[in-house]
C-alpha cells in the first residue's frame, strides 16, 4: 500500500536504529538470568562449568515468571501491531472485482475508507488498546489518520515506534534465551554432560525455552 510505504519507508532508518538507553528495561531480566549463573560460580554460557546452571532457568520460579511475562508481552504486542496495521491496510486498499457481465473484465472499486458508513463504523482501537492509544493520541486531521482510531494524527509515528520496540524486544529474547539457555542445554544433551545442575529439568527447560525462541522468531514475520 502506497500510504504505508510512504510513512514507514521514509523512516526505515529510525525503525532499525536503537539508542543505547533502549537496553535499560532489559537489565532486570538480565540480572535475574545472571543470578542463576553467579550463584553457581558460572561466569558465562561458555564457561567450563556452564552446565551447572542448566535446568535451573526453568526451575527458578522468578526467572521463569519474568521470561514468561516477557514472552507474553512480546507476542501480544506483535499480534496487536499486525492486526492493527493489517486492518487499516484493508481499508486503504482498492477492491478489485470481476464484472458480472463479462468474465474477462474487472472493476477497480474505491478503497473502503472512502465510504462514509464504513469509515464511521471502523474501529481499530478496541478495549484496553484504545485506552492506551488515547494516552498518546492526537485529533485526526484527515480520513487516513482517522483509521488509526484513538491514536489519530499520532498514529503513524506511534506505530513506527511500536514496531521498532516490539522487534527490539523479540530480538533480545531470541538472543538471550537462544544463547544463554537453549544452546547451553543442547550442548549438555549432545555431550552427555554429567555435571548438569538440574538434570530432571534439562529436557523440559530446552523444550520450553526452545518454544519461546521459535515463537519469538516467528514474530519477526509479522512486522509490515
TrEMBL record:
Top-level taxon: Eukaryota
Keywords: Membrane, Transmembrane, Transmembrane helix
Transmembrane segments: 63-82, 203-223
Protein name, as recorded: Uncharacterized protein
Amino acid at each position: 500500500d502506497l500510504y504505508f510505504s510512504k510513512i514507514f519507508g521514509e523512516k526505515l532508518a529510525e525503525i532499525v536504529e536503537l539508542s543505547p538507553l533502549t537496553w535499560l528495561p532489559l537489565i532486570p531480566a538480565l540480572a535475574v538470568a545472571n543470578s542463576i549463573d553467579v550463584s553457581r560460580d558460572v561466569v558465562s554460557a561458555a564457561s567450563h562449568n556452564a552446565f551447572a546452571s542448566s535446568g535451573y532457568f526453568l526451575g527458578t520460579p522468578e526467572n521463569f515468571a519474568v521470561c514468561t511475562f516477557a514472552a507474553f508481552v512480546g507476542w501480544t504486542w506483535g499480534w496487536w501491531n499486525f492486526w492493527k496495521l493489517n486492518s487499516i491496510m484493508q481499508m486503504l486498499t482498492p477492491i478489485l472485482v470481476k464484472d458480472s457481465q463479462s468474465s474477462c473484465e474487472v472493476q477497480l472499486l474505491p478503497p473502503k475508507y472512502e465510504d462514509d458508513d464504513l469509515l464511521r463504523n471502523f474501529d481499530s482501537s478496541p478495549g484496553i488498546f484504545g485506552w492506551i492509544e488515547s494516552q498518546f493520541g492526537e485529533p485526526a486531521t484527515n480520513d487516513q489518520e482517522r483509521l488509526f482510531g484513538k491514536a489519530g494524527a499520532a498514529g503513524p509515528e506511534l506505530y513506527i515506534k511500536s514496531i521498532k520496540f516490539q522487534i527490539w524486544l523479540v530480538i533480545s529474547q531470541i538472543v538471550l534465551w537462544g544463547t544463554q539457555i537453549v544452546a547451553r542445554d543442547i550442548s549438555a544433551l549432545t555431550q552427555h554432560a554429567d555435571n548438569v545442575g538440574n538434570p530432571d529439568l534439562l529436557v523440559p527447560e530446552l523444550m520450553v525455552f526452545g518454544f519461546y525462541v521459535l515463537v519469538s522468531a516467528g514474530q519477526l514475520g509479522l512486522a509490515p
